[in-house]
Structures are given as structure tokens and as C-alpha cells.
Specification:
Blueprint: E1 3-4, E2 17-19, E3 22-24, E4 29-31, E5 34-36, E6 50-51, E7 56-57, E8 64-72, H1 75-79, E9 86-87, E10 99-100, E11 111-120, E12 125-127, E13 131-134, E14 148-149, E15 168-176, E16 180-190, E17 192-197, E18 200-201, E19 217-224, E20 232-241, E21 264-273, E22 278-282, E23 288-290, E24 295-299, E25 303-307, E26 326-327, E27 329-330, E28 337-340, E29 346-352, E30 356-361, E31 364-381, E32 388-394, E33 396-397, E34 403-404, E35 414-418, E36 425-427, E37 434-442, E38 453-460, E39 466-470, H2 473-488, H3 513-517, H4 524-537, H5 564-576, H6 580-600, E40 601-602, E41 605-606, H7 635-656, H8 663-681, E42 682-683, E43 688-689, H9 694-702, H10 711-724, H11 733-736, H12 739-745, H13 749-757, H14 764-769, H15 800-808, E44 812-813, E45 820-823, E46 833-839, E47 844-852, E48 855-862, E49 867-873, E50 881-882, E51 885-886, E52 893-899, E53 902-907, E54 910-915
Parallel strand pairs: 19-28, 25-35, 45-49
Antiparallel strand pairs: 1-7, 2-5, 3-4, 6-10, 8-9, 8-11, 11-12, 11-13, 14-21, 14-27, 15-20, 15-23, 16-19, 16-21, 17-18, 17-20, 21-22, 23-26, 24-25, 29-38, 30-31, 31-36, 31-37, 31-38, 32-35, 32-37, 33-34, 39-46, 40-41, 42-43, 44-45, 46-47, 47-48, 48-54, 49-53, 50-51, 50-54, 52-53
């Protein structure tokens, strides 16, 4: 018998996972260990980390009955099972998610070693493999460094609508005087930085640190640089790029676009010697800097220009002659509080080879990556000194083969590389990214080939958590396109698009999008960080903007966009078991609801809406927005229905956060809103809401607002409307967030699948038929006015991914963090098979079913310490077999009920094969 301790993962407020810790129960051998960081293991952002783990066993119905956590300040103590920082003792509990640290105060610049023991109901116990973490500078008192910078442009720079600001290069030499034990660097490089020690770049992160509203918070990063410090003299080099700190459009529409200042640096290196003494190197006036280096401009909208003839050879090495460099100046600190970054860094997560390169005209070539992506292009080039290669980026081509750039607005999206003329030169930009599939190459020495180029996909480091494959290739391609679109738009925050002059973290795009994304990506820390961004953007009166961080001043006071604040917190709780985000943000959420109620609620109807059911498929393929009033849903209906829905979630949040006293008020307000809503919008004679759009009927039906006994009639009106549209999408961003589940909940999963698999306009399949490799911003994104037709958006996914995994695959959290799973696939006749897999917070879940004539064969994997309620069609309760045996004889299986041809079973952890 084998017992393994799989996926033990350390969850530190910003979620450090440790995956696949397997322990042989007989030998207690630890093997197959991986550490998956949900935050940086070096420099976590909380003094009270939370611990989580998973267990795996080849037995069925395995449950944890107790655990023990040890945290030690040395490996040796941990090996002796001594937790001098914290020893939890044996805790009789089956909880394995987000257990808070309760030991002695943690200190920065100190390694902590931890392991976890689990005892199961099978009488087995095992330890995880040891893992480590360190604490970042969580207190401002930890910092001794001074902010340095230069709050001016240089003569070759431009501070304008199209800002051109060169990178700043900072350096400092120091001596390490004793035998070194450890060396840590904590720094903030605004807007972005690269750190070098003795000429070598530290870490594989890119575009660091993650973006914030720098008036409210700025993020620090921590590095263990011990192995890079040499005895005697050493050199530090930091390059500062602009990022979002020096805004892409300086002094342009100041009423809309927020500016923060010129790049600046806060740097501290702590050397800890074997004899217990320390030495601290800080940023101060002793540093030198120059802006006359190779990065001549770096602007997220416009691109990066690099002049290799101006490279500063050896500038980050000892002995470099910096006599002509300027003395660093002390500058004012940004207004925001310095805090360790709670998320993992962005990285180059995938590299792609181009599929073709073709000559367009003399000296102009078009490179095709074969895939719309977000990141940059790396080149390898040989040529004469001073020759320039220009690269312009786009998502698609015009009929004549030229780049289609009209939809990029005023983003210039051009990189320029000036050759130094010394053999083969390899380059990619450092402080910008592009959204692109095609690249126009100009000025290439000789004839370029595909081997000269490599595409780099950049997004936040996180695992791909889920996969789904069906017998329908349209559905499969939608999943693929969704993956690429979501990955492309993770940039330290969720942005709307990666290509044009926008790239903003719009709340409305992620209302249910975040939930669906969580089935493809382990996005917990990204969205927990985003909740902080949203809270920081809240005004003192309580208003929440449409974009957060508030790079744009869009406080339009609607419900559907800011309501994402509550919906994302709900997702984090359901999918990842995160209660802390609810407790942390509950006061701000309540404040926003009170603000909207006080300012815009009249007779229990919310009277303010900004965007309506955004991006309803227009009646003309050239239009951006529909002009047909029969397609438009009343904004007050949307706002009031959403407010009602959010109040229901807040009732649960009040219970979780210990604010039970608020529940009665929320309940009473909901009752009054429901009554007023139906009085104003429900048409008794026709059993439909307002003008009868799918969205108008769907929201109150799905949100539980429909008068008793009228639900079926309202639903039939939804189906009739879909049929009148030839079973095509007629909802916009708001309605589509609930559409697929709403149809399935009322027995029309087949209709939902029809919508998902259509290939004609408007549909996701239409995008694919017209060459899309991501998800478009508009249903008619190939023909609409270029003012708004991004070809890499995710907002139109709605609840499609949720529906695919929960209602096709049958993987749904019935309890937070998948402690219990509901597996109720819609075994629709149009599909022959579905294979779904998901790395949940509890462990691996798999659901694979296929149709064999009239029989369903269903393979299921439930992770240890979880259970599942499964629903399977069956002629009788006794007709179901598990591995060929009657379910009454199957270990870990119990029949709960058989009703209307559906058997409901409870199964424990393990692997199962059911047939009916």
C-alpha cells in the first residue's frame, strides 16, 4: 500500500503553493517535490503567512483528520522536527487551506524552513518535503535607503502626448569585507527596473514590479544575491524604465489620464556576515547615473528604441569609468506606501517560432507568428554599424498584405534597433510589450528568414490549471483562443487589451471573466492583488471607478462595472477558499453599496447606469453599437438587478466576516428592491421584463427576482427570443455573463451548446472562421469601425468557460476550495465525449465522459480530502456499475437518491469508472 503527500503547497497571503509532495507511507520517503510560487518565496508581503497543502493516496475516501505545521529558522532544526519559530502541535482538523501562521514574529532577511505533517482516516501519516520562504520589508521602518532619481527630461527626450524618455542607468560600487553568510536586496524601481550585480542580471522576471496606483502603493521586490557577491569589490547596476509611472501620454488629457512623475529608485542591500555583523548598502547621493545609454525611449504604447552603438560596456562591473556620469539626486518619495509585491513576477512564459516571412515590397517584409500574442519579438541580426531595423506590430493584415493598424488608434507600436556592427547581435525590448501576430520588418540587412526571429509570450507566472476537450472542434478552438487571450492580458493586473492605446484594467471585463479564467489559470494571487488595487481607487465618498488602478479618471457611478469588486471576491472564496479577501475588503464593499444607494436609488430602483449591456451584436456588421432599441436593455433594469444580486452575496460576506448584524438590513433591502423591480419592469400579460431582450429576462430569472410561478414563462420568452435570432447570441457583455448557465439551469443545455458551437455571425465560432486566434472585442471584430475592434479581448467570453467546465465537464465547487465537488455534466446529445481536468485548490480533479450508444461511460478522479456529489442518468438506481460492479458493492460510493431518471451518488476521493 502506498500513501503519498501530493501537492503540499505553501500559501502565503499572496499564495505560495508547493505542488506534488509525495510520501511513501511505508518508508516515509519524500519524493517528487515541486514548489509553485503564488508569491515570490523571497520577500513575501505579510508577517502572517497562510499555509495550504494537498494530499494524495491510491486508496479511496481518504480524509485528513489532523495536521501539524513546523516553521524553523534552520534546516537542521527542521530535520529534527523542531519548529523554533512555530510548532502548531497536532491539530485535529480536516482543513488544509490557508491556515494562518501563529508563531513568533517573522523578520526580513531571514530564511524560514517549514514542513507539514498530515494524519488521515486510514491511520497513515506523512511529512511534506521541507520548503523555505523569507519575509520582505513589510514595515517602512525596515528601509534605510533614500529615494534617488532625476525629475527632468534630457535634451534628447520629449515630454509630450507621445512621450520619449530614455532609460536611466544607476550604478554603485562597494566592498564585501568579511566572510559572507547571506546577502539580500530589497528594491523599488519605478516605473520598471532591471537589477545587475557584477554585470549579471538578477532573476528572470520582466516588466517588474507589478503596476499599481503609485499614489496609493508601490511594490518592492526581494532577491537573494549571496552567490553573486564576491570577496572585495563589487558593483551594483540598476536600469530604470518608464512603465506606468512615467505615463505613456504625458500632460495629455490631464482630466482623464493620471501622471506620477519621473523614474526613481529605492535600493537596499543587506550583507550578513558569518560573525553576525551586517553591512548595508543603500541608494543615496553616492550613486552615479546616466540616461545617455542604449535605451533611447521606452513607451508601452509606442515601443522601445535601442541604439547598440551607445552601449555602456561593463557599466555594471567593478572598475567601470563613470567619471562622466551624473551624481544621483535625492528626490521625493512617491505618495504610495511601499509594500512587498504580493504576486509572482511577469516572465517570458512561452517562446514561439514564426510560421512565415514574406517580402511585401522593397526593404519591407511581413512576419507572421501564426498566433495573436502579447509580449515582444527577439531578433538575431548581422549588419553594419549604425544600420537600423524597424519593427511595427499589428494583429492582422489589410487585403493588400500591409499591416492593419487603424484599430491601434494613436499607439505607434514600433521598435527600433540600431546595430553596433560586431557579428551576430541578439536583442529584444526590455520595458515594453506589444499585442501582435504580424510584424512589419524594415531596414533588415540582407534577406531575413524565420530563424532570425522568436516571439516571446509574456504574462504573470502562473500554472495552467485546467484543460477541456470535447468531440466538438469549435468548442475546443474556443478554449484554445480563450487561453491565449487571457494569458495575453495578464500584466500584473488584468487588462482589457494588449495592443492599442488603452491596455486598461477595466472592471466590467472581469465580472464573471475572472471566474471563468480560474478554470484555465491559477489566478488567485493576481485577483487578490487586484482587489487591493480596486480598494485603493475608492474615493472617500465611496465611489469605485470603472478602471482600477485608476490610471484613467473614470468614476461613472454605475453598478455593473464596479460590482466586479464583489464578484471577484466571491470567486476567490469559491474557487480558492480565500476568506481573507472578503474580510479585508468587506468595509469598502459595504461603503460602495451605501454610496450608490444614497446617491442613485429612488424608490428602490437604481437610476444610474453608464454602459448598458455593452457590445450587443449590432444589426450591421460595420457598426460598433446597435442602434435598434429592441436589442437594448434598460440601464435601470441592469443596475437594479445587479444591485440585488450583489446584496445577496454581501449577506454571505457578512456572515464570513463576522458582520452578522448587517444581514437583516441586506435582506430587507433585497425584498424591497425585488418588489419595486417587478412592479416597474415585469409585464404580467406577456411574462417578460421590459422590452423582452434576452438580458432583460435572463438577469431577474437567474438572480431569483421573478415572481413565484412565473419562472417557466419568463424562460420560454428567452428561448423564443433566441429562436427569433436563429439561435445566435443577442446579449452583450452583461447578459452573456449569465447566459450559458441560465439556459442550462432551466434544462436547455442543448441550446447553450448551439450558441457555443455556431460558426456564423454573431458567435465565437464566427471569430474562429474568420481567422481569430484569440477572442475579439466585438462580435463583428473583423468588419467593425476600427475605433473599437481589438482582436484580443476577453470580455465577450461571459460565462462560457464556467459553463464548459461546470456544465459540460462536470467540475464545480460545491464547497469553497473544492472541499466538496458537484459533478453534474449536461450529457448533451450533440457531444460524444468531454474530457475535463482541473488542478483545484484541493488537488487534481478529472471528469471524462463518453457516449457509447445509449450508455454513458464516466471516469472520475476526486482528490484526497475531498468528496463529490455526482449525478448520472440511470434507468434504475441498480443499473449503474462502477468498474463493472454494482454501486452497492463499490468502495467509497453511496447512493443518495434516484429521481426522474437521475441517480445522485456521493463518492469519496479516488479514481472511479461508472457506466449506466
Amino acid at each position: 500500500m502506498k500513501y503519498s503527500f501530493k501537492y503540499a503547497f505553501l500559501f502565503l497571503t499572496a499564495y505560495i503553493f508547493v505542488l506534488q509532495n509525495k510520501v511513501d507511507a511505508q518508508s516515509l520517503e519524500v519524493k517528487n517535490v515541486q514548489i509553485e510560487q503564488q508569491s515570490h518565496p523571497i520577500g513575501i508581503g505579510t508577517a502572517t503567512p497562510r499555509f495550504s497543502w494537498q494530499i494524495s493516496s491510491d486508496k479511496r475516501a481518504v480524509k485528513q483528520v489532523a495536521y501539524e505545521i513546523l516553521v524553523a529558522t534552520s534546516k537542521a532544526d527542521l530535520e529534527k522536527n523542531i519548529g523554533d519559530a512555530w510548532s502548531s502541535g497536532k491539530i485535529n482538523s480536516d482543513n488544509a487551506l490557508l491556515i494562518p501562521y501563529k508563531g513568533s514574529a517573522l523578520k526580513p532577511n531571514q530564511y524560514y524552513y517549514t514542513k507539514i505533517k498530515v494524519v488521515t482516516n486510514k491511520g497513515e501519516e506523512a511529512w511534506s518535503k521541507p520548503m523555505f520562504f523569507t519575509l520582505g520589508f513589510v514595515n517602512n521602518g525596515d528601509w534605510k535607503a533614500k529615494w534617488i532619481g532625476y525629475d527632468k527630461a534630457f535634451p534628447w527626450d520629449s515630454v509630450s502626448q507621445w512621450s520619449r524618455l530614455s532609460a536611466r542607468y544607476y550604478r554603485k560600487e562597494f566592498s564585501s569585507v568579511k566572510k559572507l553568510k547571506k546577502a539580500f536586496v530589497n528594491l523599488v524601481g519605478l516605473g520598471m527596473y532591471e537589477l545587475r550585480i557584477n554585470g549579471k542580471k538578477m532573476g528572470d522576471q520582466v516588466l517588474a514590479p507589478a503596476p499599481t496606483d503609485y499614489r496609493k502603493s508601490v511594490l518592492s521586490n526581494t532577491f537573494d544575491v549571496t552567490e553573486h557577491i564576491q570577496s572585495g569589490k563589487n558593483a551594483i547596476g540598476v536600469v530604470l524604465g518608464n512603465g506606468r509611472f512615467f505615463t505613456m501620454r504625458q500632460n495629455y488629457k490631464p482630466q482623464k489620464i493620471n501622471n506620477f512623475g519621473f523614474p526613481k529608485l529605492l535600493f537596499q542591500m543587506d550583507l550578513i556576515y558569518d560573525d553576525g555583523t551586517t553591512q548595508t548598502i543603500i541608494s543615496d547621493e553616492s550613486w552615479k547615473f546616466t540616461a545617455d545609454g542604449p535605451i533611447r525611449t521606452n513607451n508601452e504604447y509606442d515601443g522601445e528604441e535601442y541604439d547598440a552603438t551607445k552601449e555602456l560596456s561593463g557599466w555594471a562591473d567593478v572598475g567601470y569609468n563613470d567619471g562622466q556620469w551624473l551624481k544621483a539626486l535625492l528626490v521625493a518619495a512617491p505618495l504610495g506606501k511601499v509594500t512587498p509585491q504580493p504576486t509572482k513576477h511577469m516572465k517570458v512564459m512561452q517562446k514561439l517560432a514564426p510560421v512565415s516571412i514574406n517580402k511585401l515590397k522593397e526593404d519591407i517584409y511581413i512576419l507572421d507568428m501564426g498566433q495573436n500574442l502579447s509580449g515582444w519579438l527577439q531578433i538575431k541580426v548581422k549588419g553594419k554599424r549604425g544600420a537600423q531595423v524597424k519593427m511595427k506590430f499589428a494583429e492582422s493584415l489589410q487585403p493588400d498584405g500591409q499591416l492593419y493598424i487603424a484599430n491601434l488608434r494613436d499607439a505607434r507600436v514600433t521598435d527600433v534597433y540600431t546595430l553596433k556592427g560586431k557579428g551576430e547581435e541578439t536583442w529584444h525590448p526590455t520595458f515594453i510589450y506589444h499585442g501582435f501576430r504580424y510584424v512589419e520588418i524594415m531596414g533588415w540587412p540582407g534577406t531575413p528568414s524565420v530563424s532570425d526571429f522568436e516571439g516571446h509570450l509574456v504574462y504573470d507566472q502562473m500554472t495552467t490549471a485546467g484543460t477541456l476537450k470535447t468531440s466538438n472542434e469549435v468548442v475546443n478552438n474556443i478554449v484554445k483562443n480563450a487561453w491565449w487571450g487571457i494569458a495575453s492580458n495578464y500584466k500584473g493586473m488584468p487588462v482589457d487589451c494588449p495592443q492599442r492605446n488603452e491596455r486598461q484594467p477595466w472592471l466590467g471585463d472581469r465580472a464573471q471573466g475572472a471566474y471563468g479564467e480560474s478554470f484555465l489559470f491559477n489566478n488567485a494571487s493576481l485577483y487578490a492583488k487586484w482587489l487591493d488595487d480596486i480598494e485603493e481607487s475608492q474615493t472617500t465618498e465611496g465611489a469605485i471607478p470603472d478602471v482600477a488602478p485608476a490610471y484613467w479618471n473614470y468614476y461613472s457611478d454605475n453598478v455593473t462595472w464596479p460590482g466586479t469588486y464583489i464578484l471577484v471576491a466571491d470567486m476567490l472564496h469559491q474557487q480558492f477558499g480565500d476568506q481573507q479577501s472578503i474580510k479585508k475588503h468587506y468595509p469598502s464593499m459595504k461603503k460602495w453599496l451605501a454610496y450608490m444607494k444614497g446617491k442613485y436609488m429612488k424608490n428602490f430602483i437604481v437610476t444610474k447606469d453608464k454602459y448598458g449591456d455593452w457590445c450587443v451584436p449590432p444589426e450591421d456588421l460595420k457598426m460598433i453599437k446597435s442602434q435598434d432599441s429592441t436589442r437594448t436593455t434598460n440601464g435601470q433594469l441592469l443596475a437594479t438587478a445587479y444591485y440585488y444580486r450583489l446584496l445577496g452575496i454581501m449577506k454571505r460576506f457578512a456572515k464570513i466576516s463576522g458582520n452578522d448584524r448587517d444581514i437583516a438590513a441586506f435582506t430587507a433591502l433585497r425584498a424591497n428592491i425585488k418588489s419595486a423591480f417587478n412592479k416597474k419592469f415585469f409585464r404580467t400579460q406577456t411574462s417578460q421584463y421590459d422590452n423582452g431582450t434576452v438580458t432583460a429576462n435572463l438577469l431577474p430569472l437567474y438572480f431569483g427576482m421573478t415572481p413565484d410561478g412565473k419562472e417557466q414563462q419568463v424562460f420560454e420568452n428567452i428561448v423564443k427570443k433566441l429562436q427569433s435570432d436563429n439561435m445566435h447570441i443577442s446579449t452583450g457583455v452583461i447578459g452573456t455573463q449569465w447566459l450559458m448557465r441560465g439556459l442550462t439551469q432551466h434544462g436547455k443545455a442543448d441550446a447553450a451548446l448551439t450558441l457555443a458551437s455556431n460558426k456564423t455571425y454573431p458567435s465565437w465560432g464566427y471569430m474562429i472562421e474568420n481567422g481569430a486566434t484569440t477572442i475579439w472585442e466585438l462580435w463583428n471584430g473583423n468588419t467593425a469601425n476600427p475605433q473599437m475592434n481589438s482582436q484580443n479581448h476577453i470580455m465577450l467570453l461571459g460565462d462560457l468557460l464556467i459553463w464548459m467546465f461546470e456544465d459540460l465537464g462536470g467540475i464545480k465547487a460545491a464547497a469553497p476550495g473544492f472541499k466538496e465537488i458537484e459533478m453534474k455534466p449536461s450529457f448533451v446529445q450533440q457531444l460524444n465525449n468531454v474530457e475535463a481536468a482541473y488542478q483545484s485548490a484541493a488537488g487534481d480533479i478529472k471528469s471524462q465522459w463518453k457516449r457509447n450508444g445509449n450508455q454513458i461511460q464516466w471516469q472520475i478522479e476526486v482528490p484526497a480530502n475531498s468528496s463529490a456529489i455526482i449525478h448520472i442518468p440511470a434507468a434504475t438506481a441498480t443499473s449503474i456499475k462502477e468498474e463493472g460492479k454494482a454501486i452497492s458493492n463499490a468502495e467509497g460510493v453511496s447512493l443518495l437518491k434516484w429521481e426522474n431518471g437521475i441517480a445522485t451518488l456521493r463518492i469519496g476521493s479516488g479514481n472511479y469508472q461508472f457506466t449506466n
